[in-house]
Amino acid sequence: MSQLNNRSDIPPGLQAGMFDGEELVRQNPNVPLAARMRPTSVDHVFGHKALLETGGPLSDFIQQGGKQSMILWGPPGSGKTTLASIIASSTAAHFVTLSAVINNLADLRTEISHAETRIKSGGHRTILFIDELHRFNRAQQDGLLPHVESGAITLLGATTENPSFYLVSPLLSRCRVFQLNGLNESDIADILASAIASPHGLNKTVTIAPDDLKLLASYAAGDARVGLNTLEAAASIAQNGVETATVTPVSRDDIQRAIQQPTMRYDRQGDYHFDTISAYIKSLRDSDIDSSLYWLARMLEAGEDPLFIARRMIIFASEDVGLADPLALTLAVSTQQAVHFIGMPEARLPLSETTIYLARADKSNSAYQAYNSAKEDVYMTRHDEVPMHLRNAPTELMRELGYGVGYDNPHSRTEQNPQAPLNRPESTRHNRYYVADPNDGE
Prior knowledge:
Blueprint: H1 22-27, H2 33-36, H3 49-52, H4 57-63, E1 70-73, H5 80-90, E2 94-99, H6 105-120, E3 126-131, H7 138-150, E4 153-159, H8 163-166, H9 169-173, E5 176-179, H10 185-197, E6 206-208, H11 210-220, H12 224-239, E7 248-250, H13 252-259, H14 271-285, H15 289-301, H16 306-321, H17 327-342, H18 348-360, H19 366-380, H20 396-400
Parallel strand pairs: 1-4, 1-5, 2-3, 3-4, 6-7
Helix pairs in contact: 6-7, 10-11, 10-12, 11-12, 12-13, 14-15, 14-16, 15-18, 16-17, 16-18, 17-18
């Protein structure tokens, strides 16, 4: 943490930063391994090379003291809090932390008031770090705007959710957004190896075979915190009853006991939800059966609502299979009914069956394209009255006014009438909407 934490110009009552006493945390063996191994400089951060390499946008941003408000967006364990702690230790600003999970608007106003007092007294500016920023409601986010605009605070937000959907536009426009991706297996493996060797970590008290280290890294699924927590658990299992001075090998069985069940990165409302269903639909569209089944299993095993998947199947059957195989829609609707009737886990069977059918089916989006063409005319042409011959005439007055006159009923038609009136406004006479696809049935 910045040495400024103990300055006399800090007003009383300020909330202690989450990074205060960082070195004491690293030296405390009772603190979780993930906290002890938190990097203290950019040079020790694994992953995010494009952002953090020399001359990279985030590296330059940190070196300049973080003078512009920014949002760190990324999945759990990707390094958002780590980067915030590095900024806290490298800037001359006063660093204050809040969590949108436990703090409210009153806390926010208090910290902003202290920040304004600090500025007016000639003190340092304030960097306000807000963890889980997306959990602040619109009023709380709006409350930040004038103070970010005036420079009373520099906002540093961390969020696991897409800022485009969860942050108000005025706040988003005042911040730079840095997207952090989940770490790859090589980065996770390097972090785990570092934790085994580091005096702040396991201090070489355990050894792990390279293949088993890869297993741990794979299990972490891009989340460094998960990897370190699992490593710590596996080491504890291996060292149970063993002399502390002994270097203990951690076996694959120890790792499997620590893992128990793989971590599945998924949410039912956020980006993973939308990204995974997108991957499923695009695999179906590409007639890739195995990939479609993989994404189906990813969703179901992570707890996705099977009826949501069934609804998307119905949409796909109309939009992408369409007239190439009209029975696909019937099967998709039947699948929705079956899923609703039997529930999970058996619902995975009709979902799997229909996934294979939809992936194998010929594809035609002619109905989808035809509707879009007609919709375009609805907005781009005049909203002319319904032609008189198409209007219903249930009363004598309406018949006298010409309603229904000239209608050529196909049921009583003996031959095609080339002079039959157009069944839509004259302004659309020459426009064609449906263009047959070669896969469309007769």
